[in-house]
């Protein structure tokens, strides 16, 4: 079985395809650049079934008799894996589930290099052709349907054991309802704006409103002669 999994007709979410996501590590202060996205599909999607079989195969090959224990740890910690159930995708701000994830599963894939962007005829765009890449990338929005190639791999390093996916390639498949609320419909709320008439149209300043100009008042004389400025603390220094 090939290590590369083909996902056909899945919904794209949180895409960073042509422009990478940039994050700064809180511990090291280093910037991490990642091209990544979520791919959402039904639990019975053939691509997810192939992915799940590969997950089991690779974990058993890596951890042998300890595979079940390691997989249990990974599956109970969202940060250790690049897949999950839609119910896990909840906004930390609204506490609501993100659009498109309900009753579905997802695979998260990423890479430090821009993935191959595949054109409608199946041919890849030359990554050196920045204009062509950016033009095609405009079609990848959250909610559209794509075909994607991802490559699972087992993480075993100082950060612990986990299971990740490299983002190899992505191809626009067809449009769908975009995720998010979008701009509110304000049709009918605004009427025609009439052209200004009169002196104010010529650039003359409008007269001040009565409450904008306070009445002139005479300040009372200090009761003990002229006020003395307080001495500044020594730490201000002098010039």
Descriptive keywords:
alpha+beta, 3 helices, disordered C terminus, 239 residues
Short description:
The chain is an alpha+beta fold and 239 residues long. Helix content is 15%, strand content 30%.
How would you describe the overall organization of this protein?
With 239 residues, the protein is an alpha+beta fold. The chain has a single domain (5-174), classed as Beta Barrel (OB fold (Dihydrolipoamide Acetyltransferase, E2P)). Helices cover 15% and strands 30% of the residues. The protein is built from 3 helices and 7 strands; from the N terminus they run E-E-H-H-E-E-E-H-E-E. A 7-stranded mixed beta sheet has the order 3-4-2-1-6-7-5. Strand 6 (145-157) and strand 7 (160-174) form a beta hairpin. Helix 1 (46-63) packs across helix 2 (67-75). The chain starts with a strand and ends in a 65-residue tail after the last strand. 20% of the residues are buried. The model is unreliable at 206-239 (pLDDT under 50).
């Amino acid at each position: 079985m090939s290590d590369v999994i083909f996902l056909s007709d899945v919904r794209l979410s949180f895409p960073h395809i042509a422009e990478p996501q940039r994050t700064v590590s809180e511990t090291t202060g280093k910037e991490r650049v990642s091209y990544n996205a979520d791919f959402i599909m039904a639990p019975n999607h053939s691509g997810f079934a192939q992915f799940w079989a590969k997950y089991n195969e690779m974990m058993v090959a890596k951890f042998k008799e300890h595979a079940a224990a390691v997989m249990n740890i990974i599956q109970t910690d969202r940060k250790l894996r690049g897949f999950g159930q839609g119910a896990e995708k909840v906004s930390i701000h609204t506490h609501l589930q993100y659009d498109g994830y309900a009753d579905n599963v997802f695979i998260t894939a990423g890479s430090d290099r821009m993935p191959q962007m595949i054109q409608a005829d199946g041919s890849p765009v030359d990554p050196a052709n920045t204009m062509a890449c950016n033009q095609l990338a405009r079609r990848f929005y959250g909610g559209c349907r794509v075909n994607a190639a991802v490559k699972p791999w087992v993480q075993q390093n100082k950060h612990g054991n986990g299971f990740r996916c490299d983002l190899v390639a992505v191809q626009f498949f067809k449009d769908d309802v975009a995720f998010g609320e979008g701009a509110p419909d304000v049709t009918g709320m605004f009427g025609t704006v009439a052209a200004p008439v009169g002196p104010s149209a010529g650039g003359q300043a409008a007269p001040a409103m009565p409450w904008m100009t306070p009445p002139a008042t005479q300040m009372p004389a200090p009761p003990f002669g002229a006020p003395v400025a307080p001495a500044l603390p020594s730490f201000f220094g002098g010039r």
